[in-house]
Amino acid sequence: MAFIRDYSLIMALILLPPSYRQRFTAASNTNFSPRPFSSTLYRWRRVGDILHNIAMPDGRDEPVVNTPSDVGRHLSKSSQRSGVLGEVARRSFLSRSRVQKLRGGGTNEDDQDTIADKDMSFVDATSSKKEESPSNTQVSVKFTKNKTSNKKKQHHDEERYSRQMYALGARAHGLVRSTTAILDGPLGKVLSPTSLRLSSRGEHGFRSLHDELDAPSSVSNGKEIPSGLLYEIAKNLALSGVGRIILVQNDDIDVGYFDGAFDDLGAAYYRAALSEVFPSKPSDNAVNDRDGDTIEVEDEDYSDELNDALAADGAVLLGEYIQRLNPGVQVDILSRAKLLKLLRSSEENSQDGGDWDNDEESSISLGSNPVVVCIDRSITAMMEMNDACRHKVQISKSQSIPFVSVKTTGVYSQIFCDFGPCFVVVDENGENPRSTLINKIEGHDDDKELLIVHCLDGERHDVSQGDVIEFQGDHNADVASRSATFPQCEVVAVKSPTCFTVKEREEHVSKDESLLNILLDGKARSFSRVKIPRRISFSSLRDILYPTLSAAGNGPADTKAKCWDDDTLFAPSDLDKSFDPVRRKAIMVSMEALDKFVTKYGRLPYRFSKSHGSDSLHDSTKQKRTDLERFLTLIQKITMPESTKTWEKVITQFSNTCRAKFTPVQAFAGALGAQEVLKAATGLYNPVGQFLLYDCDEVLEPSRSLTNDSDRNEDDDANDQNRVANGQSYILGHQLSQKLASSRLFLVGAGAIGCELLKNLSAMGAGTFDGGRLIITDMDTIEKSNLSRQLLFRDHDVGEFKSAAARTAVLRFLPTCRIEAHTSRVGEEEEGPFDDDFWSSGCDVVLNALDNVEARLFVDGQCVSNGRGLIDAGTLGPKGNVQVVVPYQSESYGSSADPPEPDIPVCTLKNFPYDISHTIQWARDLFDGYFHRRPRQANDHVEEIAKMEDLTVFAQMLIRKFGEDAALDMAEELGEDVGVFPFTVGLDSNDPEHFLAVKRVSLNWAIEQADRLFRVAIDELLRKHPINSVDEDGSPFWTGSRRVPTPLRFKTLDSSEDEVSATQVIINERIAQFVQSAARLRMETFLPKPNADELAPTHVSLEDALSSLEEYSSIIRNKKEGSVRNISESRGCNPISDVLEQLNGAKTGASFLPRLNLIDFEKDDETNGHVSFVTAASNLRALAYGIPPADAMETRRVAGAIVPAMITTTGLVSALSCLELMKILKGLPLTMHRNAFVNLALPFFAFTAPLPAQQCTGVNGREYTMWDRIVIRGSSKSPVDAMTMRKILDKIKKSAGLGDDIEVSNVSYGPYMIYANFLNAEDEELLDSPLMDAVRSAVISEEGSDENLFNETSEAHQPTRKVANLTREQKATLSRLARKRYIDFSVVVEHKETGEEFELPLIRLVREKKD
What is the rounded distance in angstroms from the CA atom of residue 447 to the CA atom of residue 508? Predict the structure, then answer.
């Protein structure tokens, strides 16, 4: 066996004299071979490492062992001292790549590099001053990562974190990447090797980890279960891209404060981490690495030993899991004692994060941007850590290390932040200041220093009193950007949404000219708010809770501070609850009483009613009391109880639920806690100041649909430990948990929100009981940018369907979950598994995780039609919302609609842009026109042009179909796009001459387009509207939103016309960038597409563009104004001749029958040049109109309609969605549900009860809602499709209970009216025809208008036309109609005498079921 051979070698070498041993070590390190697997030299080097770490751990020359019998003991001690991964590194038979991957450095793009380039250091930061007992060894382990080049790392960041960067910005994102997040929370106990055996032989071979962990009893004691909140925060921070995470390890702190047996989220994460870190072994001599690659090992017992070694520590398991979430995050493990020592050290921490390849303890550092987070810790532990973070403030008055604490107890949670006495918030909301156009600025009558600003008509300002604004215009304008420099002003008063008063800020008083003269001259065109950094002073937790003795450091005082009475210390999280001082006091006191309870009894309170025996040495009383009574006694020692129902209710519910964890509350607190860490690291967004309390105790309200099982006993709590969702059953009862497990939940979308929902639902035990099922669908595939906020996906999943990959990941969280994955789109026109039967009986509740309104409205309509509950969630950067639709109670998603996004007027885009978004949209449209519409246009007509000998007929057709101007433009485009082929097609496409010919004509075309767009078009606009022109009413034309453009043209540096200015240099550079990108894309439309495994070459360089521009600059410069075709002047005499003249060039090229490539805009590929073209075109147009330019990042956001996204917001709305799901299943009244509107940047939380469904008044005053239906069912004897119109009308009157004085006025199917009494009351043919014939004719009619239906020649009530005569769309429509199980009709009735009309509830015709 390999290990035995190496073991013997170790023993022999230890006995060598020190000088020989040192020579061996040096030789083995020098002569290392880069071969990855079975390498003799590699083994020798590993033995050298072992000798240094075992024989001479303290740097001594002599070994600490003298006989072979001591080797085993010192090997064991070494593994305890240096950590689990150090022991793994000393396995000489272990392949180098495998060890590297275990250390966290082999899961990113650098895996393809040669092994010799990888970092081979294994760092074990040990304590040399104090040797701890083997049972309580504290180790410091580093998960090293490969070193990548800055350029490659930057590209990796931009691709992975692209959506987050649009929310945070480049500055804040850079700070996040340099952040060290220090997480202190319950990591889980050490496991016995027998419980971790990942594979065991049997008659069926190897069993997977899923089989071993399938039974709940395997984790019944809960000692090995880590905190789900800890994993949640670690997950959020890892996906957010923090540079480094330090896990604080200490098993002896807060004993009894955390019970993993009732932490469902922790158990789910534990199962997922074990399953992912230790996959099933495929063969006797192979193990899988994290990338799925098979690595051969020489010892078949190795994988079991390795798995046991690695999983024996909860910190190592979490570290490995973090590395799989994001390989770019460095993970380290430190003991709590060592961390406190570092925090209290008087020496400044290393600014570069320390040398992680050095074994010396002194090299350990917290980095330049650390943030400490305490998770599920007691108040005592939190104060100790908080005080350590503030140690430097007390000693040297330097900046405090930001501190965040997060804890959940049952349905209650608390977040606390202390960012030091002088924390700077750079940007409170992260919003880009909006530029508002100015109508006029006038002086104030009473104060000469004040100015009154009037906004342009239709513009509303967004400023408030005290805001600082900055004007933009033409004053002191920079020549290149034409952006003005005005003094900043402060808003003194706001008069109206369009008018306010300002004065100049004292520190920005102008020295040259008075502010009044500058602004009154009308040179300011717009204004925007200026964000001023704000300083915030935080207090420590000890200062807030125990202010009397906190300065002396003597611990808690007898007199408690009434911090709950200070509103400034609490950020509101619920408008109904947060401003209730009694509730706030009850929660704060309960948190403190819980600490005292655990200290006294060594455990958390139980909720069952009967008395619990004394299980603590502290409890020596003979009389047995309930834990609630003990808890109330401790509260009385803290403060005087309040005599209100709220106080009693909160205290009782807190005591009854604090033992367990509730997954939605953990996910909520985890998202908010991680967001506060990012705020502390970046100064972006307004932090919580200083407490935030959130609870969802309304979910504990009794329900009429479920029996009340709150009166539980000890046996019930013991049985909870054998269920999947122990904590949830403990809090809400087994019946509700079982109902969730047996429900059919339909999740639409498996993206960011979908992944978070699936994670939560798996922790809550969804789909694990008879009949229960999780059904997910998503037609999208995984992209690299998804990985920063979708925790279920890994790098190797890129390109796979989201739903399929999500299903695989869910089974890691919950192996017993019944889950279906589909790739079908959900929509009206889609065929697939989601038919009427599915919506009516295949799902119970629907959870929306969609990104478009159209799909949301369709799902909402299906839920209303079938009486299904719906929970919809969405995010936009730090903003999020959740809407719950309760069947038969609330309004639906479609009941209210957001106002549509305002479209940019065509005239603004074409001639009068005044904002960078206008130029970006113009450039985006230009891209589609040049590289998609025009190639498709050429492909559509090239064959037709080639066949015609005389193009006159074709020209006449174009004029007749499109009009003269559009036909002439189209003919010119065809001439340009097809006419180049005589110069290129004659050459072989593989011939370099062909490539050069295409490049030459493409450059020429790009230069002509640049001249046409940025010189000719602007000159023509200025000829039509000279600078001094006026409107019809006599006011200046170029005012308000109209900016005077400046024509741009390329000039060579040796131009003889005039001296080339700095502005012209910028113009030349931007024109060259436009020509470069345009010519490259133009070439791609002509050249053959590369194969899928080939990369398209960079066709055009910037030097190519500059040389071509210089070559043609004389031609462009010498063009006379009259030589440019003026559309308004050159057209008119003979349009056909003009069109033919342009088509002549296309005739010859069309004879070669070319096929041009169509290019679709792709925003996420930086190598394709799409964003480069849009950026170049947009910034050139912005330069012409004096608009500040935008970089490629902002251009990509606007042009690609990218929605900023953050994992924290996603996690928070997903948590609230799962909470509302439990309320729907429990059947709580509408007033207990909550729609949520949150903004984590402020932070702001608004929870409101859903609006009830609108009541409609029908016949005889009867009321109904949108949920009501009048059902008419078919039968085998009388099928729906055979029912005549007359019979349907009779059934409607009978089912609706209408009297003889009421008649049906009209019947409509969707937008089609199929019956109207004023037209069809005497139409016997229609009345005796099947109703469905009229429906079929209506839905396939070309116009679908009412007059067609009732025209004498209409086919509305005629038999459906033959299928052979129908179009594909009409056939598809009929097919969908035939598959529908039911059809809803809108029916209006009227009183025969009064003529008063009433609308009935929807009439539903239900088809009979087919066998």
Answer: 19
pTM of the model: 0.83
Q: What is the pLDDT of residues 1055-1099, one digit of tens each?
A: 555 566 788 889 999 999 999 999 999 999 988 876 655 555 557
Nearest Cα neighbor of 651 from 631, 625, 630 is 631
Residue 480 phi, psi dihedral angles, 5° rounding: -75, -45
The residues with which 501 forms a beta bridge, in sequence order, are: 452, 493
Cα 584 to Cα 1301: distance, rounded to the nearest angstrom: 61
Residue type, 670: G
Contact 665, 411 (CB under 8 A): yes
DSSP per-residue codes, 618-660 = T---SS---HHHHHHHHHHHHSPPP-SHHHHHHHHHHHHHTTS
DSSP 1330-1344: BHHHHHHHHHH-SS-
Cβ neighbours of 1114 (radius 10 Å): 11
Strand (E) or helix (H) holding 775: strand 773-777
DSSP conformation letters of 710-722: -S--HHHHHHHTT
d(CA 1111, CA 1099): 19
Report H helices in 429-576. 515-520, 541-545
Contact 43, 6 (CB under 8 A): yes
Tokens describing residue 676? 């506060």
| Tokens representing residue 1143 in the block | 């088509």
Instruction: Quickly count: other Cβ atoms within 10 Å of residue 1237's Cβ.
Output: 14
Measured in whole angstroms, how far is the alpha carbon of residue 1375 from the centre of its chain?
38
User: Residue 1057 CB: number of other CB atoms within 10 A?
Assistant: 8
User: Rounded to the nearest 5°, which phi and psi values hold at 968?
Assistant: -65, -40
Q: Tell me the pLDDT tens digit for each residue of 211-226.
A: 434 433 334 456 789 9
Partnered with residue 1030 across adjacent β-strands are: 1036
Residue 424 β-bridge partners: 535
Q: Give 1121's DSSP letter.
A: G
Pairing label, strands 845-848, 744-748 = parallel
Helix axis angle, 916-928 to 1170-1184, nearest 10°: 130
Among 430, 374, 180, 164, residue whose Cα is nearest residue 1240: 430
Map residue 1010 onto helix, strand or coil: helix
Are 206 and 199 in contact, with CB atoms under 8 Å apart? yes
Q: Cα separation of 656 and 412, whole Å? A: 11
| Cα separation, 115 vs 113, whole angstroms | 6
Strand, coil or helix: what is 152? helix
Distance of CA 681 to the CA centre of its chain: 20
Q: Summarize pLDDT for 844-872 with one digit per residue, the tens.
A: 999 999 988 999 999 999 999 999 999 99
- Angle at alpha carbon of residue 615, lines to 612 and 618, rounded to 5°: 115
DSSP calls for 594-622: HHHHHHHHSSPPP--SSPPPP-STT---S
Q: Which helix (H) or strand (E) element contains residue 101?
A: helix 96-102
User: How far from 851 is each of 876, 894, 1203, CA to CA, in Å?
Assistant: 10, 15, 9
Q: What six digits make up the tokens of 959?
A: 């004029």
Phi first, then psi, for residue 1111 (nearest 5°) are -65, -40
CA atoms within 13 A on the CB side of 240: 40
Number of neighbours of residue 484 by Cβ within 10 angstroms? 20
Q: How many residues can be counted in the chain?
A: 1411
The Cα 163–Cα 173 span in angstroms is 11
pLDDT top residue among 41 and 729: 729
User: From the centroid of its chain, how far is CA 1093?
Assistant: 30
Angle at which helices 934-947 and 964-978 pack, to 10 degrees? 90
Alpha helices, DSSP H, located in 1151-1187: 1170-1184
Q: Are 755 and 774 in contact (CB under 8 A)?
A: no
Taking alpha carbons only, the member of 363, 340, 362, 361 closest to residue 352 is 363
pLDDT mean over 397-423: 93
Round to whole Å and give the CA distance between 1152 and 986.
9
* Of 220, 229, 208, residue with least CA distance to 275: 208
